[in-house]
Amino acid sequence: xxxxxxxxxxxxxxxxxxxxxxxxxxxxxxxxxxxxxxxxxxxxxxxxxxxxxxxxxxxxxxxxxxxxxxxxxxxxxxxxxxxxxx
Amino acid sequence: xxxxxxxxxxxxxxxxxxxxxxxxxxxxxxxxxxxxxxxxxxxxxxxxxxxxxxxxxxxxxxxxxxxxxxxxxxxxxxxxxxxxxxxxxxxxxxxxxxxxxxxxxxxxxxxxxxxxxxxxxxxxxxxxxxxxxxxxxxxxxxxxxxxxxxxxxxxxxxxxxxxxxxxxxxxxxxxxxxxxxxxxxxxxxxxxxxxxxxxxxxxxxxxxxxxxxxxxxxxxxxxxxxxxxxxxxxxxxxxxxxxxxxxxxxxxxxxxxxxxxxxxxxxxxxxxxxxxxxxxxxxxxxxxxxxxxxxxxxxxxxxxxxxxxxxxxxxxxxxxxxxxxxxxxxxxxxxxxxxxxxxxxxxxxxxxxxxxxxxxxxxxxxxxxxxxxxxxxxxxxxxxxxxxxxxxxxxxxxxxxxxxxxxxxxxxxxxxxxxxxxxxxxxxxxxxxxxxxxxxxxxxxxxxxxxxxxxxxxxxxxxxxxx
Lengths: 86, 467
Hints:
The complex is a heterodimer. Chain A is mostly helical. Helices cover 64% and strands 0% of the residues of chain A. In chain B, 37% of the residues lie in helices and 15% in strands. In chain B, strand 4 and strand 5 form a beta hairpin. At the A-B interface, helix 3 and helix 4 of A face helix 9, helix 10 and helix 11 of B.
């Protein structure tokens, strides 16, 4: 009985969604960490776990710079300069 | 005039060497032999060379001496030794670009276009120079080859990423070197090593047969110990080249004939706001140059800090795109500091990069308007003098900043829109620091003319190190 109950309990836990617990722990830091891992995987980049903090640090630095650019209002018809001419 | 009859050409300019060779006062072979001996003697201290092309250099020198013996007129840089950052293709050598990975490449089949142009002008390549890995660097440190060292204090950084170029010219190994500048990699080593550097207008000098970093920001240019040498080299390298897709199809505009015109009539202003120096040495350097030029007007370069940020994002993303496949297959062979920046760049969202490119066009339009009111703008080249090798951070107004990312604080907003800049060294004690003379696109002549006048006044000079 005990075993069955235990199985039942494990099974119930496995099926039970855990959004509340996950959401409560999601912070900008954990989302960056998750983003690094998922993006690297999507691009086929194999990361050594030891590199993770440094990559996340550099990504945060890029995002801080990006925020400064992003907050600057440009008109909708602003053209990018992908082929740049001086 | 050559320094000694015995042939210690350590501190002679390219112009004086070429004049002596052309006049037959000294043979090109003698110059090259002395240069090679000096490299053997001093480079163990400076660590600026990664390859010395001895046999090739001596063969070219002998050919020049033979041409002179036949009565032929020698070209303007005859017998001038020069070296190149090791991202330039040199026939017979793998193009390292400061990396371990590129050591596996086959040797280059042909020289980079700018090497061919300098050699057509009589200069003689003596080797390839150390650099920060894949040019993603402002320090001059290299995990594979060791750091190139500052000739004024061997414990200090040369600056990067063209660190070997700064070290070799500042240390008197060669009077002329070539480097690349994506975000400041000519101007930062010029500043820390106390030499002159020219980052021309984007698209002015061909980049054919060099290893790229961020193609929409990559420039090539010369380092020297005098303005005249910069101008001589620059003039020899100008001209359209279909082998570089962004090389401008413009008529060459020689600058040497304009050098002696002086700064009269030129409107010079000092960059305000973001560019105001935050250390005593940066302030002193700009003040001394501005005072000598009578430049008492400040000008605001709008949104410069944002421009630097946009350059930062484009660099990270475009640089990462270049390396994506190598990051998949050989990530462990990179310098970790470079690898982790590149991986972060690889996963940066495209929407942010495109926004930075849109901002770039807006910023360019605003800055070009300034040149309706002024001919040149002065700004510090680096926030401080050379940090110690291995130093991770420095303080600016009590804010601790990473060295590697921030030595180019003042150079990035300028190269971002491809403006030509002459970096001029102010010989402060104990360490030099440079000022940027920023001109309108295609007006390298303005920057060189001002630099030459400052040099004549003794305000700027390449200080000779006590090596």
